[in-house]
Amino acid sequence: MSPTVTSAARPATMDDVAGIARVLSRSAHEDPFFRWLFPDDELRIAKTRRFFALTAGFGYVPAGGTRVAETVDGTESAPVVRGAALWAPPEANPEGQLVSLRTWPHWGPLIGRARLTAFVRVFAEWKLAAPQEPHLYLATLGVDPVVSGTGVAGGLLSDGLDRADSAGLPVFTQTLDDKTVGFYERFGFRVSREVESPDAGAHYYLIRDPS
Questions:
Q1: Per the count of CB atoms within 10 A, which of 20, 139, 185, 194 is most buried?
Q2: Which of 11, 163, 161, 158 minimizes the C-alpha distance to 81?
Q3: Is the Cβ–Cβ distance between 53 and 18 less than 8 Å?
């Protein structure tokens, strides 16, 4: 039986961190950024899962902007997280927590010395490309491949866009995957900048003005 969406996007709690890390690592396995960051095919999904556990658990879930979508089928006793969106509201800085003294010791062993400097450089490029005015920032959006094409991703994105429109805020995101640019354009985003990085490839920065 195919999974069926049972709930609209809801705010994530710390109990959801493991599920968020699972679905985002599955979603991002072939993403160009993570192929660059973790080039070993056999280790990538485990390392990406750890990456998102740190990102969600230390930064985005405590900041209060993360949303999840759940599904259930006849074999499951409870809903299962199948999609997640890591949002940063304008008044929060979840990525500040990700480079704090508390979390920094985790990144070196995970990413490795060979890529750590380049990773910090890419991270800085993202921050510099963000709008200066208050905005809603979408750090990551992903769904479990088993629900790909069922509207889960669109529902998670629309939930954030509705909140941005209600507050009169633009929305900013970025991707290294040119295949996802068209997906965002269908929701009113436009490419504001395209930058070729010597480290990770082409970066597409996207903005959506409030409706």
A1: 20
A2: 11
A3: yes
Which residue is listed with tokens 């979603």?
A: 27
d(CA 70, CA 19): 10
Query: pTM of the entire structure?
Result: 0.90
* Structure token pair of residue 146: 């088993």
Q: Where are the beta strands (DSSP E) in 89-198?
A: 136-143, 171-175, 190-197
CA pair distance 184, 157, nearest whole angstrom: 9
Residues in contact with 46: Cβ distance below 8 Å, sequence separation at least 6, in sequence order: 25
Centroid of chain to Cα 201: 18
Listed in sequence order, the residues at least 6 apart from 33 whose beta carbon sits closer than 8 Å to its beta carbon are 176, 177, 200
Q: Mean pLDDT per segment of 10 residues, for the chain of length 211 residues?
A: 64 96 94 91 94 94 92 73 93 75 83 85 82 93 89 94 96 92 96 81 91 86
- Cα dist from 13 to 40, 68, 103, 105, 106, whole Å: 31, 9, 19, 24, 22
Sign of CA dihedral 26, 32, 37, 38: positive
Q: How many residues does the chain have?
A: 211
Dihedral sign, Cα of residue 66, residue 67, residue 73, residue 76:
positive
